[in-house]
Structure prediction request, 201 residues.
Amino acid sequence: MDVREIVPGLWYWTAPHPDWNGAADWPEDVGCVCYEASNATVFIDPLVAGDRKDDLWAEFDTRVQRRRLPVQVLLTAPWHMRSAPAFAERYGAAVWGYQTGGAPAGALPAGTELFVPGGASEGQVGFFLRPHRALVVAEVFMGVDGGLRVCPSPGLIDAHAFNESLRGLLDLPIDHVIVSHGAPVLHDGRRQIAEALGVHV
Prediction:
């Protein structure tokens, strides 16, 4: 459970999910993100668990104290609450979640753009961190074999709208795709998304 720097100001770590029950369709360790926005220290889908959780909290404490900025927690899905309540209590963090069928719950940190998949109803979203050309998603993509696989939403209503919304991601200059399940894509993210969609770019 080491925190890995992707680029300066953007870190990724994994932690064992406490509700994992040996499921074959997703691995026990899930991905989490720390992003240093200009106006906040941001944690996306954070989970602190496992044998080294005290070391991880100490590392985050140091980072938060050094920056002296508000802490914000972003959720890519309602079921990714994970350690968000602990972050809210420890750092006085605001927790941002997308309200299905309504407006986003509060302003996003600087440099963060919201992606809402079409054709689905369960409130799953992605965040494009423009300063780092990184896309952070819940489960619309899974990391497999060094690339990505499209994972249709459990709340899928319109497959065409869902696929077309994913194609819209190709308009963004994405270098990195950070997923909850599987390994992140750290180079040529836009091309990897296109390959997962079967689109030539």
